[in-house]
Amino acid sequence: GAVVSQHPSRVICKSGTSVKIECRSLDFQATTMFWYRQFPKKSLMLMATSNEGSKATYEQGVEKDKFLINHASLTLSTLTVTSAHPEDSSFYICSARNWDSASPQHFGDGTRLSIL
Amino acid sequence: RKEVEQDPGPFNVPEGATVAFNCTYSNSASQSFFWYRQDCRKEPKLLMSVYSSGNEDGRFTAQLNRASQYISLLIRDSKLSDSATYLCVVNPWWGDSSYKLIFGSGTRLLVRP
Fold first, then answer.
1. Helix or strand or coil: residue A57?
2. Contact A93 B43 (CB under 8 A)
3. Which residue has the higher pLDDT, A102 or B49?
4. What is residue A59's three-state secondary structure?
5. Which is more confident, A98 or B82?
6. Considering only residues 54 to 83 of chain B, which have any Cβ-Cβ distance to chain A shorter than 8 Å?
7. 3-class secondary-structure state, position A31
């Protein structure tokens, strides 16, 4: 089945650091990728939607300058958390789907970010 | 009102039990519905799509009631390995090329020996 790889799986860093998370589709072309954030015991919250080659669409309340998304190819999207602070600590998950509107989203295995 | 609401549980059942989860959604124009399973500290995995006529996959049965905006998941003959959080997921837009998904907060299931 379709595989989405996310890297790194775990990040611990100091406040003020910028952190880049990669999301790769390994066996299909991901025309659309999604970035979610999940706090403990809460639901996944969509942060932004990115289509290959165009600017990401951010959900209300998500700062685009804080969470930089790049989707430069059909197999790779990156999320950069700029100048991370402890409140940015969360579980970040990407998902990807191809051009077929009937195809499901395939999720990466998530990145646990801890800001000290 | 949340777009997708679920009873958080936990549901604590013995092995072999039948358990049902319910979910309601607020957008009557929603077109696609899914149940995902999420294990602790892991990513969600698609369990099954939910079709208007209802559908079954082994021990799992999903039902959709559009009039009541209600989705259900029935698990028969529960296994220890079924212990997880079950997420009700809705795609609320028809023809939206971004195919956004709205997740419920999940219902936790604990199956005991």
1. strand
2. yes
3. B49
4. coil
5. B82
6. none
7. coil
